[in-house]
Design a protein that fits this description.
mainly alpha
């Protein structure tokens, strides 16, 4: 008699390995994150986003000539075709920038076909274009939605400074430029998160890289993933004052509601990315860039959460701190998640390339819970 295997369903696939990967590593108990074996703290201090993106994509830090070529290739592919900009003008002004980003990223695949995903040249130039053009799309989207003309990118600025320029037509201070670059590094990869899993699943079908990244952007847009940093600032605004924090948090806990920016599926101590951002929040406070009320409320949230939830190993995560930093450097709230995507595109592409090395299309199974062998009832008898 044939023995049937009994399958246990694991909600959210928590703890189930979906792939082997050499890209990033997390030790949730120790609160550590590494890209290709290098700690996130070291990269944030010593590297740049474009160098870190190269590390993720190609498995090693670039030499001087390799980095120069990579940076030049990115710089000279930052502009958008006129037809793409015209198309963006006709998208609804009330649409969320993540929807713009997803739609325009998908359209890029029509202008830069890359159907042969196994061709190394096609992969390289697709990665260049996607990394180069996402800041331009995000900045153009913001300006168009507010009735302003897009600003052309500048080849003489760094990757982070150029994005700030395209938003405001102002060069950022050295501190803001560094903070933006660090934010992109901190968000560049995070093992098998929801959007990365989406990228690998779509990539496993040999879909083109623009479709792969577009699917990942759609996944990232959800408030339980990338959209949480927006909700953090809305929560701080809703709380309104330091005195309201304790009753607000206690009310959330009593109603069993989620506190945005608190807790993480992997980290059981503090989020190392948040720790890095806290050092920059301190620097921003020293320069007077951060609203004192925002800092007072956020520090009180951390205190109350530590008091109420530390025993459950729930702590403020990167979304909590990144929302505060974004607010301090004047990034519009609806661009928080697109900036997240600007960094994470490097990780998505790295996982896509890794997936293709030993590709097998994803095809999980299910545990069926519905009816069986039911009769068809004619419409006049229903």
């Amino acid at each position: 008699m044939e023995e049937k295997m009994v399958m246990d369903v694991v909600p959210g696939l928590e703890g189930i390995p979906a792939a082997e990967s050499a890209i990033s590593f997390i030790d949730g108990e120790a609160g550590k994150l590494e890209y290709r074996g290098i700690s996130i703290e070291t990269l944030a201090e010593k590297s740049t986003f474009l160098e870190t993106a190269y590390l993720l994509l190609f498995g090693k830090l670039p030499g001087r000539a390799e980095l120069a070529r990579w940076q030049n290739d990115i710089v000279f592919h930052t502009r958008l075709k006129l037809k793409i900009l015209r198309m963006m003008e006709y998208l609804p002004e009330g649409g969320h920038p993540m929807h713009y980003l997803q739609a325009v990223t998908s359209v890029l695949g029509m202008y830069y076909p890359a159907r042969d995903t196994l061709d190394p040249e096609a992969r390289y130039w697709s990665a260049v274009r996607l990394i180069a053009k996402m800041p331009t799309i995000a900045a153009a989207c913001h300006r168009l939605r507010h009735g302003d003309a897009p600003i052309n990118p500048r080849n003489d600025l760094s990757f982070a400074a150029n994005f700030y320029w395209m938003l405001f037509e102002v060069e950022p201070s050295p501190l803001i430029e560094k903070i933006l670059d660090v934010i992109l590094i901190l968000h560049a990869d995070h093992t098998m998160n929801a959007s990365t899993f989406s990228a690998r699943v779509v990539g496993s079908t040999l879909a083109d890289p623009y479709t792969v990244v577009s699917s990942a952007i759609g996944t990232l847009s959800g408030p339980l993933h990338g959209g949480a940093n927006e909700e953090v600032m809305r929560m701080i605004g809703e709380i309104g004052s330091k005195e309201n924090v304790q009753p607000y948090i206690e009310g959330k806990l009593a109603r069993k509601e989620k506190i945005m920016g608190v807790g993480h599926r992997v980290y059981r101590t503090g989020d190392p990315r948040g720790a890095v951002l806290k050092t920059y929040i301190k620097k921003l406070c020293e320069t007077g860039n951060v609203d004192k009320k925002t800092i007072d409320i956020s520090e009180e949230i951390e205190r109350v959460v530590g008091e109420k939830l530390a025993q459950k190993k729930l702590h403020p995560n990167v979304d909590f701190h990144s929302g505060i930093v974004f607010d301090a450097i004047c990034i519009p709230i609806d661009l928080y998640t697109p900036v997240f995507a600007m960094g994470r595109v490097a990780g998505w592409l790295a996982h896509w390339m890794e997936q293709l090395k030993t590709n097998r299309i994803y095809r999980p199974t299910q545990k069926y819970t519905g009816l069986r062998e039911q009769p068809y009832v004619p419409i006049d008898k229903r």
